[in-house]
Batch of 2 targets.
Target 1
Amino acid sequence: METIELAIQVLDSGLRLTALLLFACLAGLFSERSGIFDIGLEGKLLGAAFAAGAGAAVTGSAWLGLLCGIGVSVVLSLMHGLASITFRGNQIISGVAINFLAAGMAILFGQAWFGRGGNTPSVTGAAKFNDISLPLVDTLNNVPVIGMLYRELISGHTILVYIAFAFVPLTWFILFRTRFGLRLRAVGECPEAVDTAGISVIWLRYRAVIICGILCGFGGAYLSISQNSFFVRDMSAGKGFVALAALIFARWMPFNALVSCLLFGILEASAIAFQGITIPGIGEIPVQFIQALPYILTVILLAGFVGKAVPPKAGGVPYVKER
Amino acid sequence: MQTQTTATRQQLPDAAGEPPAIELIGINKSFGNVRANRDIDLSIKKGSIHGIVGENGAGKSTLMSILYGFYQADSGEIKVNGKKVHIAGPRAAIAAGIGMVHQHFMLVENISVLENVVLGAEDGPWLKGSLDRARTHLEKLAREYELEVDPDALICDLSVGFQQRVEILKALYRGADILILDEPTGVLTPSQADHLFQIFEQLKQQGKTIILITHKLREIMAVTDTVSVMRQGAMTAEVKTSETSPAQLAELMVGRPILMRVEKTKSQPGEPILQVDDLRVFNQQGVERIKGISLSVHAGEIVGVAGVAGNGQSELLETIAGIRHAKSGTVRIGGVAAGVTGNSNAKTLRHLGVSHVPEDRHKMGMIGPFEEWENSVLGLHDEPENSGGFIMKIQTILQHADDQMQRYDIRPPNVHLRAENFSGGNQQKIVLAREIDREPQLLLIGQPTRGVDIGAIEFIHKQIIELRDRGNAILLVSVELEEIMSLSDRIIVMFDGHISGERDPEFTNEKELGLLMAGINEAAQ
C-alpha cells in the first residue's frame, strides 16, 4: 500500500513539473517550427516568473500577475525577434543574451522594489493560483482505483496545470488544421516558398515568436505564483533548457512533446522522492547523484534514442532574399 | 491588387487587335554600380512561347524577378494584357496572373503536395475547406494538362520531375495565365524534358503564355515561337525562332562568333590509368548509392559519365577522389591500389597523381572569402614547393598564382581578390588551373561548366582536351548531355548506382542516351 501511495505521490508531483516543462516546450515548438531557434526559453521563464510574482504581490490578483508575466516574456521575445529576424543576428547569441539579461534584471528590480535580496513578497489567497477541486471527486471517491486516481492525480491542481495540458491538443490543431499552422510549418522549412507565395516571412516569424513569449509567460507565472508563492532568484533552475531537450526528443511534434515532458517531469519527481534511499548491497545513494539523474538520462536519451531528429530545415538561418 | 487601368503609353495591339500578354517598357535596375538591366523593352504575344537566352549574369533572372515582384525596377513600366500594373511583390504578380517556376523549386519538402499547392492561396483560416477544394481542382488540372501527381505524397518522396509538376500546378492553381519557367530542364532527363514541352503545347493551346528562360539553345529551337537575347543587362535582339539558328543565337549572346562544336582528334588510348573493380558505396544513411561498378579509363582518353543528377555519379567521383570510402571493391591508379575501402583520403589519392575538380566548386573546390593566391594552393599547401615545413613560401606561391592567372586567362588578374568576387567562369578556371597544373595522371572533373558562361566554356573544354592529348586520363561527370557527347571518347551512362550502358559517342544519339539515363537499355532487351 505504501508503494502505491508513493507512486501516486511521485506521479502527482511529476504532473506539476510536467506542466512547467510543457509551457516552455510548446513555446519553443512555435518558435523553432518557424525557423527561430530559441535558447532563451530559460530567460523568458525567469523574467516572466519575476514579473508575475511582482505583479501578483502588488495588485493582489493572480490573473493580473499572469498578465504581467506574459507582458515581460513577450517583450523579451520581441527583443529576440528584433535581433534574429529583423537584424538577422545569430539566434544562439541572442538567446544567451536574453538568459543573462533576464536573470540580472529580475534581481535588480526585485531588490530595488521589494528589498528582499531579489525575492518578491510571498502571496496568498487571490494573488496566487490555488489548487482547485474538480467536480465529482466526492461521487467517485467510493469507486476503487479510479476514485483514488481521480482524487489524487487528476483533481487538485491549479488552473494553470490544466491549461498547460490543454495547450497540447490546441497546438496540434493550430499546427495541422489551420492556415497559420501550415504557413508556420512551411516558413521553418523553406522560407523561400512562403515568400514566393506572397506571404511575409518576417511577420509570420514575429507572430511565432510572440506566441512563444505568451506561452513562456504562462510558464513563468506558473513557477512563481502557482507552484510557489513568490519569486526566488534563478528559480527556473534550468527548466528552460530541459524543455528544449524535451522538444528535440519530441521531434517538434505537440503530442510527442506531451510524452517527453511527462517523461522528464516524472523522472525529476522520482529523483526528489528517492533522495536518501538505501539500495541493499550498495548503501545509500548520494543525493547529488539522484539530483543529477534526470540530466544524465537527458543526455543518454538525446544521444541514444532520438535517432535522427531533423530540426526544421531553415532553423537558425536568417531569411535573406536570394540574389 | 495594385492594378491601375490608366494606360500612359500607346499600346501595341497585334494583328488580332489583342494587347500583348506582357509588355515591358524601358526597365532599368541597378545593384550598386552594376547595371543588371538597362532600358529593357520586351513584348510577348498572348498564347505564345517566348524564350529568353543569355549568359549567366546577363540579367535574365533579374528581369524575371522584377516581373514577379521580387525586385522593384528603378524605372520603366510593366503592362499585363495592356493594363499598366505596379507589381509590389509576389502577391501582386499572382493577382496579375503571373506564375513562376523557379530554377530551385520553392517547395516545402516535408509537407504534402496538396499543402504546398494551397500554401499562400488558402480560402480562410481553417485548412480543411481549402484542401478539399484544392483536391478537386487539382484533379481537373491533372486531366486538362496531363499533370498527374499524387496529392497526398510528400514532396521529398517525389522525383524532381514530379516536383516540377507540383510547381506548375501551384502556378495554375493560383490562376496564372502567364507562366515563367527559369531553367526548367536542368534537372530533367531528355525524355522528361520532352514531356514538359508537350505540357507547354497544351498550356499554349489553352491560351496561356509561356516565358522560358534557358541557356540551352536546343530547347529554344525546339519549343519557342519567339526568342529574346540578353547580353550584359541589355536586350540585344528579338527574333522569330523559325528565322534563326543556334549559331546565330550563341553569337548574339556572347557578342562574338562561337565555336559550337569542340574540335578534337581521335583519341589514342594507352595503358589503363584508372581501374575500378566492383565498387560498392553506401551513403551516411546506409543507402547503397553505387551498386557494383567496374570501369577503366586509359591514358589519353576522356570517359564521360552521363546520367540524371543523383544516380551515383557524385559518389563515384568522390570515392575515387578519396573523399568518401567504399564498402567493397578496388580502385587502382596506374596499377597501384588506392585503398578506397579504408585508409584513402584526398591527399593519398593526390599523391597517386589524381586531381579533382569537384562538382560543387563553392563547397569543395574553393574557399570564397580567401584570396585567389590562397585558393591556388588549397590541398597543395604542404607540398615541399609551397611550404618549408612550418612557414609557407608565400613569395613562390604568389608568383606561381600570378603566372597561372596569365596562362589560364583568369580575370581580373589580381591574386589578392577574394575567390567569391570572381565570376563563375573565372572561379572554375582558378580551380581548374590548380588541378591541371600538377599534370595529373588522372583528372576527375564534375560539372566542368556549371554556372560558367559560354566564352569560358570554350576555354575550359580546350584545356581538358589538351590535357588528354598530353597523354593523361580524364573521367568527366556532367549532367549536360551535349557536353558529354562533344568531349568524351567513350560514354558511360549511370542509372540508380549501376552502369546502364556504355556507348561510343560517334555511334549514339541523345535519344538513346536519354533512355539509358532512365535505366532503359534497348540493346540489351
Note: The mean pLDDT of chain A is 90.
Target 2
Amino acid sequence: MRDYDLAVTGAGPAGMAAAMEAASLGLSVLVLDEQPAPGGQVFRAVEAAGCDPALAGEFLDAGAALARDFRAALHPGGEVEYSPRSTLWHVDIATGVISVLREGASEEIRVSRLLLATGAQERPVPIPGWTLPGAMGAGAAQILLKTAGAVPQGPLVIAGQGPLTWLLAVQLLRAGAGPVTLLETGGKGALWDAFRAGGLWTGRRLLTKGLALVREAKRRGLKVVRGVRELRAEGEGRVQRVRWAGGEMACDTLLLHEGVIPSTHVSRALGLEHRWDEAQRCWRPVLDEWGATSHGLVAVAGDGGGIGGWEAATATGRIAAIDAARRLGRLPEAEAERRAAPHRARLAAALALRPFLDRLYAPAPEVLVPRDDATIVCRCEEITAGQVREAARLGATGPNQAKAYLRAGMGPCQGRMCGTTVAALIAAERGIPIGEAGALRPRAPFKPLTVGELAALPLETVA
Amino acid sequence: MSGPEVLVVGGGLHGLSAAFHLARRGRRVRVLEAGHLARHASGFSAGGVRTLGRHPAEIPLALEALDLWHRIGELVGEDCGFRASGQVKVAESAADLTVLEERAAALRAGGYTHEEVVDAAGLRRLLPAVAPHVVGGMVARRDGFASPYRTSLAFGRAARALGAEIVEGARVIAAGRRGGLWHLRTADGAEHAAPVLVNAAGAWGARLARHIGETIPLGFNAFMMMLTARMPAFVTPVVGATSRPISFKQAETGQVMIGGGHKGVGSLDTGATALDVERLAYSARTALELFPVLAETRIVHAWAGIEGVTPDDLPVIGASGLHDGVIHAFGFCGHGFELGPVVGDIVAQLATQGFTNRPIAAFAPGRFGGPAGAGTGAALPQPAG
C-alpha cells in the first residue's frame, strides 16, 4: 500500500497552495483531483485558456500563475505527486486508509493526514421550473465557457445575485452571447444593511474590482432588472420564458445563481462536526485557526471550510500545510506560528469584505424554503417541497430521516442538490432552527463508482 | 393512576410494533427511544419481507407475519412500501441445488409449501438477467420487500393514534424494580415507571438486560448495504444465493440494493458505523457474478447499520427467566424485519395475559445457559454486552 504524509483532495487554489507549502516543509504529498488539470472551479482549465479575451483579467493572470507554480513543484523525484482524474470515494478515518478511483481501478492508500480542499459548489436554486432543460446554474455555464468555449445562443437571462452574476455576464457578453438580461433578486435595503457590516476600506481592492466589472457589464449592453421576487421558469419541454412578480421575459437559457456554498459533502460524510452558518446560510465544518477539524486525521482548507474566495483559499491552504508539518513533528511549534503569520495577515485582508458581501447577497428566504409545494427539491428522485413538508408532518425530524422516508438525497447527486433545502423545509415546517434539523449525512462512495470498478479492488484479506 | 402500564425501550420496528399491539389492547404504553425512531437497523435494513430460507423455528412466525404484510395497509393505515415481488435463492452449482431440494423435501414433510424449487428454465423465467452458471433455485412467491423506515414510522403513528406515548431522545441509563414497578431513568434525568418493561433495544438489548442483572449473550454486526443509480428494470424478485452471502433487489425506482451479510465496523457507544471497503468489494463481486448486467452501474450509496446478533443466530423473544414483568424482543440477527408485525403481537400477549399461543420456545432469553448465566459467547462477532 502506498503511503504519504499528506493527501490533499482538490487541486484548486487551496489544494495547490497547501501542496507547495507542505513539499517545501519536506512532507510527501499526494494531490488528488477529479479534473484533468489544476485550477479547481475558479481557475478551471486555466492552463488551456491561453489568452482567450473573454476570460481576461484575474482568471488568466492569477490563476495561470498559481498553476505554473504548482507545476514547478512537481519536478521528477520531488515530494509532490499529482494525480489528476482521480476520485476520493472512501476514507477509513480510524486507520487513515483512503480509497481512490483512477482510470477505472480503485486503490487504497495510507495517509498520515488528509486535507480536504474540496472548494465550493453553487447554491441550488429550487424555483418552479428549475429542472427544465435550458435552465442551469450560472457556475455550470461558466464551466462550459472555460472548458469548451461554449456560448449559449439566443436570449439569455441570468437570475439571482452575487459577484459571479456580473462576472459571468461580462464573460458571456465578451464571448458574443446575447442579448443578456440580469434579473437581480437582492432585497431592497440590502446595500445599506451591508454597509453596516463594514470592511469596505480593508477590502477596497476587491470592491474596486467589483465596481469595474459592473461598469464593463453596462458598457456592453447588459440589461438589469432589480428587486426580482417569486421567480419561475416556464416552457413546454424546455425553458421558454421566466416570470416574476410584476414581469416576464422570453428566453432560451436561464442561468440561476444565488452564490456559492462550501462543498461539505466529504466532511459531512466523515461525520466531522459542522455548524449552520446563518450569515452565509450554509453548513460549514467546525475548524480551528489551523483548519483542523473535529477529527485528528482531517483538516479543511479553502472554500470548503467557509466561503472566502481564492485568495483566502491559498492562505488557508498554506496554514493547513504548516499545521500538518507541525503535527507530524517536522516543524517546531514556534516556527509554525512564525511561518503562518504572513498567511494569516493575507487571510484577514482577503476576508475583510466578506461580511459586507454576505449581507449584500444574502439569499431570499424562498431560495432556502421554496413556497410552492409543487417545486421539485430533489432532482434525482423528483421529490417536491410538498412531499418534504408532508414527511416532516409525518415525523421526519431532519434530512436524514427524510432520506429514509422519501429517498430524497439517495439519487446520483447524493444529496448535493437537495440536502440543504430539505433541512430548511423541515426546519420551517417544524418551527425549529435549521441547525437543529441537522445536516444531511452523505454516505460513501463520495462520488459514484461502478459495481465493476468496486469489484475490481484487489482483495487482500477477505476469503 | 394514569402512568403507563408498559414501558417499551427501543423505538425501532419491534418496539413500535409492540407499542401498537399493546395500545390496540387498550394498554397505556410509553416508548423510550434513545435517539430518534428507526435510527439503527429499522432504518438501515434492506427491507426484505422474507419467509424463504428461514430457520425452522422461525417459519410459523414468518408465515403468520407474511399474512399481515399482505394486509399491512389495513393494519397500520399505509402500505409501508410493501411489494409482493417474491424472493428467490439461486443455486450456483449442482451441490447448491441438492441443498435446496433437500430443504424443500424437509419443509414438505413438515407441512410447509411456501418454498418451491425451480429448475434452470423456471429460474430464468423469474430472473431473465441471471448469469449463465446458475442452475436453478428456490422461490417463495408471496415474499417481497418493504420500506423499513416507512414501516417503522407507520407502526409508531398507528400506536400514537391509539394513545401510545413515544419519547425520543430518551436514553435509559439506569433500571431497577421498586414497589412492584420497573423504574427507568433516562440521560436527561427523567424517571419513568410501569409494572411491565419491554426490552426492544435491538443491538443494545443485552446492555438493558444487564442493567437489571440479566446476562444474555449478544454481539452485533454492522451489516453493509449498497444502492445503485437507476437502471432499466431487469429483476423483480429479491434475490439471494445458496452458498454465499448476498441479497439483491431492484426497487420500483430502478435503483438496485445490494446487501446480504458483509460486515463493516460499528460502535455501540456512539452508534457510528464505517465501511469495510474490501468486504464491500467482495459483495460487489458476488453481485456482478450473479448479474453481469450490473458492471457499468454506478453505486451511489453504501452504508452499514448496527444489528444485534446472538450465538445461535435466532432472536431473543420471551419473558425474562429472572424477573417478573420483563419481556425481551431483540437480537434479530439481521432477519427481524419481516417478523415485526407479529412479534409485537406476541410481546403484547405476554405483557397482558402472561402467555402466547405462538411457538417461541426456541427464542427463550434463558436458552444460553440459565437466566443469569454468562453464556458461551461463542461466535460472537463483536460483543455487544
Note: The longest strand of chain B covers residues 219-230.
